[in-house]
Amino acid sequence: MSVLGEGPEHETGGLRNGWIHRGSPTKVLRARATGCCKWCGNTVVWYDRHDGGRIPLAPVRFPSHRVPPRFRWSADEGMATVGALFGECFLAHLAICPAIEHVVLPREIEDVVRVLGVRMWKMIDSGVFVSADPPLDETEVCRTGVGGRGRGR
C-alpha cells in the first residue's frame, strides 16, 4: 500500500470552501467533516452512515484488492457504506489508529498502522500534538475519535 498522504489541508484564516453532495441524505459540509483523532493526532474525515451513525475514515483511498473485505468502506454522495466502489476503498480510522492495541491485523493494514504510528510520535516529540488518555477499546474511538487537540489547536 502507498504511504498515507497528509489529507485535506487546513486553511489559515478566511473562509474555507465546502460542499454538500447534491441529493445526499446528509447535509454535512465536507470541509467541516475533517478533524484529528484525539488519541493519535492523525487526520480523519467523518462520514454519516445510512443507519444514522457516524464513522471516522482515513482521508485517502486505497486499492480494494490490497485491503481485506472486512476493512473496506466507501463514500458516495457524502454517505459511508461498507464495501468498495470502483476498485478503491477507505479504511475506518478505528482499524488503523496507532493508539489502539490491535490484536491481529493483516500485513497490509499493519504497514498503514506503522506509518501512522511514526507520524503520531513525530507530532508528540515536536510538541505539536498532546494525546488524550489512551482509548479503552475500538468502540471508544468510534464514538469519540475526534477531539479538540491536535495539529496547532
Explain how this protein is built.
The chain is α+β, with helices and mostly antiparallel strands and 153 residues long. The protein has three helices and seven strands, in the order βββββββααα. Strands 1, 2, 3, 4, 5, 6 and 7 form a seven-stranded mixed beta sheet that branches. Strand 1 (34-36) and strand 2 (43-49) form a beta hairpin. The model is unreliable at 1-16 and 144-153 (pLDDT under 50).
Gyration radius, rounded:
15 Å
Helix amount: 10-25%
Strand content: 15-25%
Order of helices and strands: EEEEEEEHHH
CA distance, first residue to last residue: 30 Å
The major pleated sheet works out as: 7 strands, mixed
Tell me the number of helical segments per DSSP (H or I, 4 or more residues long): 3
Which ranges are low-confidence, i.e. pLDDT below 50, for 5 or more consecutive residues? 1-16, 144-153
What is the SS-derived class? alpha+beta
State the total count of DSSP E strands.
Answer: 7
Shape: globular
State mean pLDDT (0 to 100 scale).
76
Keywords:
153 residues, alpha+beta, seven-stranded mixed sheet, 7 strands, disordered N terminus, disordered C terminus
